[in-house]
Amino acid sequence: MNLVKEHAAFDVETIRKDFPILKRKINGKPLVYFDNAATSQTPQQVIDVIVDYYSNYNANIHRGVHSLSQEATDAYEQSRQKIQKHFNAAHSHEIIFTSGTTHGINLVASGFSSLLKVGDEILVSALEHHSNIVPWQMLCERTGAELKVIPMNEAGELILSEFDALLNENTKLVFVNHISNALGTINPIEYIIEKAHAYGAAVLVDGAQSCPHLKPDVQKLNVDFYVCSAHKICGPTGIGMLYGKEKWLKALPPYQGGGEMIAEVTFEKTSYADLPHKFEAGTPNVCGGIAFGAALDYMNAIGFNAIAKYEQELLSYATGKLSEIEGMKIYGTAKEKTSVISFNVGNIHPYDIGTILDKMGIAVRTGHHCAQPIMDYYQIPGTIRASFMFYNTKEEIDVFIAALKKAIMMLS
Amino acid sequence: MTIEDVQKDIIDEFSMFDNWEDRYQYMIDLGKSLPLIDPKFKTEDHIIKGCQSKVWVHADMDDDKVKFTADSDAIITKGIIAILIRVFSNQHPKAIIEANTDFIDQIGLKEHLSPTRANGLVSMIKQLKMYAIAYQTQLN
Ligand SMILES: Cc1ncc(COP(=O)(O)O)c(C=O)c1O
Asked: Which reaction does it catalyse (chain A) (predicted)?
């Protein structure tokens, strides 16, 4: 079922009509949604796919002989193929449905427990989402491997010479996000992958923040694992994907036991199902999986080149306007960054500004953005983060700037 | 004044404002005028967990009445604390334990009462009541 029509040319007003939530009023003011890096909004085309699923072919998949089950299975597997095509994976069985980025990272970390030993090293970048550092700490506790951190500079860029120096024969795995959620830095993952491979280390890239803004080609990147969440790419929550090279997915043991992931079970021994089912125990989020495919259709119909170009315009427009404000300090000034701006104004607490902005209908994020190590680096309690998607406008940025100035006036 | 009397006063004061700007400006000003906590109490064990901003609370008992002092690094949070302290400070522990907090809704700050909101108003109230419970057991 393809409910997504082509968007002829990039026209933000037409695009905005696709998003019913953008018509909402918050505290009596039109919603200005600038918390896209946390969760993106859902277009009607994807909502329709969800409604269609529950209205017409909701059934358990892969095991039914009846028609509904077959329809649901077909749609789910077609969606896997869409995802494969989108990321240019060599095989559709290299795409594992997960509940999201966090699940994908834990799946890989857990799988590596059986492959690591004392003396092995894992490298993670200083720009990570801190909840994603925990699985690696747990892995190191289980295996005796050591966790090392690739440091960043004042601009929020990874220091590559330090990365080079950390790499050695004991490095088994490198974990880095493609784009930092707190600062928007685009990391040079091509370089990192190539260097890591020279030492035989595998690389897992966290694509949670990149997939909304660009279209990664996993074969061209030659990345070993790539993870993302649909809810940041105009899809629903609770669904995401793990791409893994076939050789790696075969080498890793299953993550969870249950239905779907087995070929044969006796009390003596169980043989595991082939990929991708080996990693998909239990009834999955069928509707979510199908809607994930529809969300990618939607984004592709608009086109990632057009999206990137427009979002860069928003970023430079907002950066320019913000910079004119007295006491403004923007964190994360990497040369390569996406439409995320983290900032503080003078000594005003980010929470105070966030609260006042909300009264004026503007949704931003305040706090440490799950990146405590980055906040520690800058020695601040947190920042205000405004993050834009292709459905945001310069007019909204103007409203945001005016509201911000008002908040500053009230709070000073 | 009883806790209820103080709450009534606060409701009266807030009823003068007919828009959120004035209400918030008033809270911000209250925050600025909050008598500060003695710096020696601004330690980890005086921090209330569950707040995006830092909140420190200290309590003393004098003449069977609990006295609270507090501080926060965020000004709106400080304003909220100032209101809470006005309500709860200088009261008998039993009165603090039994007090209800519906007045927060009535002064238009209901959104801050959500237990999931990261400002920790709910944890703050809980903490003030915990102090009162502790002092009440001393009195028994
Ligand atoms: C860089 C990064 N990694 C991982 C996550 C976690 O994603 P999820 O909560 O969908 O598992 C996020 C979400 O904020 C993120 O920004």
From this structure: (sulfur carrier)-H + L-cysteine = (sulfur carrier)-SH + L-alanine
Q: Please state the atom number of ligand 1 nearest to the C-alpha of residue A370.
A: 14
Q: What is the DSSP letter of A57?
A: I
Domain that holds residue A310: 12-44+303-407
Does residue A212 share a domain with residue A282? yes
**What is the pLDDT confidence band of residue A8, given thresholds at 50, 70 and 90?**
low
CB atoms within 10 A of CB B116: 6
Task: Name the more confident of A280 and B118.
Answer: A280
A228 in catalytic set: no
Residue nearest to atom 7 of ligand 1 (CA): A101
How confident is the model at residue A3, as a pLDDT?
46
Assign residue A65 the CATH number of its domain. 3.40.640.10
Q: Which residues in A295-333 are b (16+ Cβ under 10 Å) and which e? A: bbbbbbebbbeebbebbeebbebbbebbeeeeebebbbe
Determine the distance in angstroms separating the CA of A220 from the nearest CA of chain B, rounded to an integer: 42
Chain B residues touching residue A375 (CB < 8 angstroms): none
Q: Please state the rounded mean pLDDT for residues A181-208.
A: 97
Model confidence, pTM: 0.92
The active-site residue out of B51, B59, B70, B132 is B51
Do A370 and A283 belong to one domain?
A: no
We report the CATH number of the domain holding residue B58 as 3.90.1010.10
Taking only the tens place, the pLDDT of each residue in B5-56 is 999 999 999 999 989 999 999 999 999 887 778 888 888 888 887 667 788 9
Cβ pair B76:A351 closer than 8 A:
yes
State whether A61 and A178 are in the same domain.
yes
When CB atoms are compared, the residue of A27, A359, A366 closest to B52 is: A366
Residues in A 136-195 with any Cβ partner in B closer than 8 A: none
B24 Cβ under 8 Å from any chain A Cβ: yes
